[in-house]
Design brief:
37% of the residues lie in helices and 15% in strands. It has 164 residues and is α+β, with helices and mostly antiparallel strands. Strands 2-1-5-3-4 form a 5-stranded mixed sheet. Strand 1 (7-13) and strand 2 (16-22) form a beta hairpin. Helix 2 packs across helix 3 (87-98). The longest helix has 15 residues, at 145-159. The protein binds FE2/S2 (inorganic) cluster (2 copies).
């Protein structure tokens, strides 16, 4: 049987240099999960749900719609990596728990990544703007208000200088 063509993609994932051998058409989502980065969730795989959201060079993207091959030399951060390495993301994870923003939890990693990007880019404690920022993420359980609350709480702390 003919061996499938593969390529090697070099990236930094959650601060660590990695070289993934992948088929050229593979999405970033599949490349990450094939290499045990399981906190990136696979929902619709069609760009609708946002649970696969990761940061690529600081920008939130849907990893199911991103070719892994296009990420050569780029820096990828996921919910888990951010939580261990980024103060704002770690605070946001805690705020999700405090605000009751997690039910089944399947959408949570994507919301944390999108929310972290909002907060790190100077997003204000403005519920309307927060809703816009996470409008690409779906949640089937919470009705969204508690998710917005958590991001709002952290945005407020940043504005008040409690969280630098
Ligand atoms: S799995 Fe990527 S948007 Fe749903
Ligand atoms: S907590 Fe279940 S989908 Fe959001």
């Amino acid at each position: 049987m003919e061996k499938k063509k593969t390529i090697v993609v070099n990236m930094k994932v959650n601060g660590e240099d990695v070289s993934y051998e992948i088929e050229p058409h593979l999405s970033l989502l599949r490349a990450l999960r094939n290499n045990y980065v399981y906190d990136v969730k696979c929902g619709c795989e069609e760009g609708d749900c946002g649970t696969c959201t990761v940061l690529v060079d600081g920008v939130p993207v849907k990893s199911c719609l991103t070719l892994a091959a296009a990420c050569e030399g780029k820096e990828i951060w996921t919910d888990k990596g951010l939580g261990y390495n980024d103060r704002i993301a770690a605070r946001l994870q805690k705020a999700f728990v405090e605000c009751g923003s997690v039910q089944c939890g399947f959408c949570t990693p994507g919301f944390i990544v999108a929310g972290t990007a909002y907060l790190k880019n100077g997003g204000k404690a403005d519920r309307h703007a927060i809703r816009e920022a996470v409008s690409g993420n779906l949640c089937r359980c919470t009705g969204y208000n508690k998710i917005i609350d958590a991001i709002y709480v952290v945005a407020k702390e940043i504005e008040e200088g409690v969280l630098a």
